[in-house]
Amino acid sequence: MPTIAADPAEAVPAPPVAAFSPLYQQIKALITRSLQGGEWRPGELIPSEVELAARFRVSQGTVRKAIEALADENLLVRRQGKGTYVASHAEPTTRFRFLRLTPDAGEAGALERRFVDCRRQRAAADVARLLALKTGDAVVQLRRLLSFGGKPVVLDDIWLPGQPFKGLTAERLADHDGPLYGLFESAFGVRMIRADEKLRAAAADADSAALLGVAVGAPLLSVERLAYTYGEQPVELRRGLYDTRAHHYRNELS
Amino acid sequence: MPTIAADPAEAVPAPPVAAFSPLYQQIKALITRSLQGGEWRPGELIPSEVELAARFRVSQGTVRKAIEALADENLLVRRQGKGTYVASHAEPTTRFRFLRLTPDAGEAGALERRFVDCRRQRAAADVARLLALKTGDAVVQLRRLLSFGGKPVVLDDIWLPGQPFKGLTAERLADHDGPLYGLFESAFGVRMIRADEKLRAAAADADSAALLGVAVGAPLLSVERLAYTYGEQPVELRRGLYDTRAHHYRNELS
DNA sequence: GAGTGGTCTAGACCACTGA
DNA sequence: CAGTGGTCTAGACCACTCG
């Protein structure tokens, strides 16, 4: 049993059993909190290294290491001579970070997004579990067709938690141009940080076959994505069917 | 027109148009060369930071930055208190770095590798192009079946350039235990650094269906992998068919 | 030219490993 | 305990951007 010191001033400090955390990781956590709290918004410039060093009372090198870690995780973007920016899904450079489908040959034709459906409903058990909700909680479901150069290639079913995406409607989607994640961050303050995907081969059912213009039973690439925002919180479930006759899913192993 | 100095000693030094290369990147290149040349072999300990700093006449911090970059690329592994090791595909921790197939539920059953075929032949045009060879050059072709818990799940066709893999035979493969890339690095001095994969959905043909125990026409995940060694040199082409009825290909987007 | 991030150094101290 | 990598600091200088 631990001894209790009579005088609080003499209390034995808690031994650092496994509680060692480097300064730069603490700074990293503080910066992340400011990002999450909206102190600096996507696309904006954050304070310079020297300013942050003064603010946190640490050396510039420590701030630098924290920022470098966040840049590695694609939360920040550093630009020499200019400053450090909050990453945004609206930027042209980051736009295809999450879309891994590429034409087998040549340039990608113009990308077109068509929303087939948008409805609010109650979460089924599997959807709720993945989104860390309770069965029956409100969710928004979207169905979307992605076309390259006029040809439909991807059919996505998307589920979003009802709460942060309260005002999401078909009009809102139709008005918006550009990547969905850009809309999510600008209109709903939800920033997608990372995602896990599970890929399988599947046979097209009648519905998917009609929308994608393939034969019933044709092989399709099935992609289930769970996307996370800050703090490993899941905020989007996506089930996609890809027509891979003229496109492929590219991946780099390292 | 540039002026030519009469005295060579007075020659104007070439302006650093775009030729700036940080010291730590030069050190990184030197370390890479030693790795490539076999000065330190996979699994071995490389010299300490202070030793390398003395050897290259730079500060420890510069060496550290070079090593950190190489560790990020999975060429080196740092272990506090012990030292820095050359990464190896034989290590249990790195063994599944390139195999992204995971069972949908539960633990992966025992992995079993069975080689169906191993032959030397002349490269077809497409294989030659991908491996940076000439059509008709010698290649080794392997056909391999991967089973989890006794059930066949992956059928791989593998092409290797004839040159570095001269002594590769069916016996050699049968004798070896563990990942193929472990054999490649220990027996042939070829270390796989990274790989590009292209994923598609395909229908099983008679051959594949029989080997994988699925129906003809069943959807399979098709994975074409091109693996590279040092200097972005392609050294393996792999065409795999995955049965994804009880397994999936996992990927993380970030 | 002023301000930004990028590189390089030198030195101190900390955490971890193994003899 | 000595040796390793890991953290933190302070300061100098370089490369890039923009007004």
How would you describe what is shown here?
- Chain A folds into two domains: 3-86, Winged helix-like DNA-binding domain superfamily/Winged helix DNA-binding domain (Arc Repressor Mutant, subunit A, Orthogonal Bundle), CATH 1.10.10.10; 101-249, Chorismate lyase-like (Chorismate lyase).
- The model of chain A is unreliable at 1-17 (pLDDT under 50).
- Chain A has seven helices and ten strands.
- In chain A, the strands form three sheets. In chain A, strands 4-5-6-9-8-7 form a six-stranded antiparallel sheet.
- The longest helix of chain A has 15 residues, at 23-37.
- In chain A, 25% of the residues lie in helices and 33% in strands.
- The N and C termini of chain A lie far apart (49 Å).
- Chain A has 254 residues and is of the alpha+beta class.
- Chain A binds chain B through residues 73-74, 97-98, 100, 193-203, 217-222, 225, 242, 244, 248-254, and chain B through 73-74, 97-98, 100, 193-203, 217-222, 225, 242, 244, 248-254.
- Strand 7 (194-203) of chain A pairs antiparallel with strand 10 (247-253) of chain B.
- The structure holds a DNA duplex (19 and 19 nucleotides).
Topology:
The structure is a homodimer of 254-residue chains.
Chain A: H1 23-37, H2 49-56, H3 60-72, E1 76-79, E2 83-86, E3 101-103, E4 111-122, H4 125-130, E5 138-148, E6 151-161, H5 170-175, H6 180-187, E7 194-203, H7 206-212, E8 219-229, E9 233-242, E10 247-253
Antiparallel strand pairs in A: 1-2, 3-10, 4-5, 5-6, 6-9, 7-8, 8-9
The first copy, chain A, binds a DNA duplex (19 and 19 nucleotides) through helix 3.
